[in-house]
From TrEMBL:
PANTHER family: PROTEASE PRSW (PTHR36844). The lineage of its organism: Bacteria, Bacillati, Bacillota, Clostridia, Halanaerobiales. Keywords: Cell membrane, Hydrolase, Membrane, Protease, Transmembrane, Transmembrane helix. The keyword Transmembrane helix applies. The keyword Cytoplasm does not apply. GO terms for biological process: proteolysis. GO terms for cellular component: plasma membrane. It comes from the Bacteria. This is Protease PrsW.
Length: 220
């Protein structure tokens, strides 16, 4: 497989998504260097997540029951992936003086989520081909960005309001959303069109959170 086209299909869309969301931070854009650092660490998070999820891959592909699939989707996929993306921001950028708006939590978290999606998409494209990669470049990238961005909104509020309980609220919310989404997809309960509809709804929810955060910016 041609490496150039592999990178074009899997990496370039992720960077374009980062730029798209980055442009939403109108009043005090974050340093590009920190955005790229978050993106890079988000990509690296795929490695420990993959190691944790790998022993459960056969059960996820061939679950003995729908209850088991639901438990694995939430308890393994949802928890592992969302905690990993959250940890990238919480233990790198969160303490920085640059993290000084609620919207910063969203932008950094989206960047981490998109970094995660890019490496994941790269691996899927390598194994399954360009067609799968192109679909994932839109659908999977946006779903990861949405989950991470929703978490980031609560992370931003937690820092600005000095209320760590909000972190738990955001984390539980995205773990359940991610787990339920994977359960419906892996269980074959929904068509591709419904998948696209869910992605659109989550994106709209994220945009509303971004707009709310931007409107409350102290730099407005």
């Amino acid at each position: 497989m041609n490496l150039f086209w592999l990178l074009i299909v899997s990496v370039l869309p992720g960077l374009l998504w980062v730029y798209f969301f980055y442009s939403k931070d109108k009043y005090e854009p974050e340093p590009v260097r920190l955005i790229l650092v978050t993106f890079f660490y988000g990509a690296l998070a795929v490695i420990p997540v993959g190691l944790i999820e790998f022993p459960f891959s056969n059960l996820l592909a061939n679950p003995p029951s729908m209850l088991m699939l639901l438990l694995l989707s939430v308890g393994i996929v949802g928890v592992t992936e969302e905690v990993a993306k959250f940890a990238v921001v919480r233990y790198t950028i969160y303490s920085s003086d640059e993290f000084d708006e609620v919207v910063d939590g969203i932008i950094y978290s989206v960047s981490a989520g998109l970094g995660f999606a890019v490496l994941e998409n790269f691996l899927y494209t390598l194994v399954f081909g360009y067609q799968v990669g192109m679909i994932r470049a839109i659908v999977t990238s946006l779903i990861h960005a949405s989950f991470s961005g929703i978490m980031g909104y609560y992370l931003g509020r937690a820092k600005l309001e000095d209320n760590s309980t909000l972190i738990l609220v955001g984390l539980v919310q995205v773990i359940l959303l991610h787990g339920l989404y994977d359960f419906l997809v892996l269980g074959g309960f929904i068509s591709d069109y419904i998948v696209y509809g869910i992605v659109a709804i989550l994106y709209i929810y994220l945009v509303r959170l971004i707009n709310s955060a931007v409107e409350t910016s102290p730099f407005k």
